[in-house]
Design a protein that fits this description.
The chain is mainly β and 207 residues long. The chain has a single domain, classed as OB fold (Dihydrolipoamide Acetyltransferase, E2P), CATH 2.40.50.140. Helices cover 12% and strands 33% of the residues. It contains 2 helices and 7 strands, in the order ββαβββββα. It has a 7-stranded mixed β-sheet. The longest helix has 21 residues. The radius of gyration is 30 Å and the shape is elongated.
């Protein structure tokens, strides 16, 4: 079942081009985004927990042969802790947040606050704020049992401080002087009488 999570921070936005996972360069290309849910957003966390619990119950019958795994792998992690993939701390942008990644092989919808499609990829970046539609599901793959997160689409609601060192031209450069004046347009002068000839090359004015 799809749920909408409001007022979240987006990171690692890969929403316009499918790419292999960062930890598996030979894997299937997917669209993806990392979602940062501030811990102060308790309503969002409650909705996520409920959706995951429902996915676990569904997985018992559909994926796990009627047996609930004692410790199924869950997709939501504490941004104040360490990454389960390598044991390293999460980045500074994850502090005070719950962190999870949603992905899809199908292109997600990407809309603005008026629910109009965003065409310009430059308007979508790590650091913006908005809402996200996801669905949690059970999986049983290569001996691993857990809950995954599918991405349906995102809605950009407002801009935020870009993450990952993104800078503007104004941040990077200073003006070095006035723009040069445009070169004057060249106009072909009109021929004088002495330069006018008939088709046989004879001066028609006798000069």
């Amino acid at each position: 079942m799809a749920i909408t999570i409001n007022d979240v921070h987006f990171s690692y936005c890969n929403l316009f081009e499918a790419k292999p996972p960062l930890n598996n360069p030979t894997g299937d290309p997917k669209y993806s985004v990392t979602i940062l849910v501030p811990k102060t957003n308790t309503a969002a966390k409650a909705a996520i927990d409920q959706a995951i619990a429902q996915a676990v119950e569904a997985g018992v019958g559909t994926k796990w042969n009627g047996v609930r795994p004692p410790m199924p792998s869950l997709p939501v992690h504490d941004g104040d802790g360490v990454r389960p993939s390598d044991g390293q701390p999460y980045g500074e942008e994850c502090r005070g947040c719950w962190v999870f990644t949603a992905s899809s092989k199908q292109a997600p919808f990407v809309v603005d606050g008026m629910v109009q499609n965003i065409i310009d990829p430059r308007q979508v970046y790590s650091g913006m704020w908005g809402n996200v539609s996801v669905n949690f599901f059970a999986y049983n793959s290569a001996g691993k049992k857990g809950i995954g997160c599918g991405l349906n689409g995102v809605q950009k609601v407002r801009d935020g401080e870009p993450l990952g060192g993104r800078v503007t031209a104004q941040d990077a450069f200073q003006a070095v002087g006035p723009a040069p004046a445009p070169a004057p347009a060249y106009t072909q002068p009109a021929p004088s009488y002495a330069q006018q000839y008939d088709p046989q090359g004879v001066n028609i004015f006798g000069l």
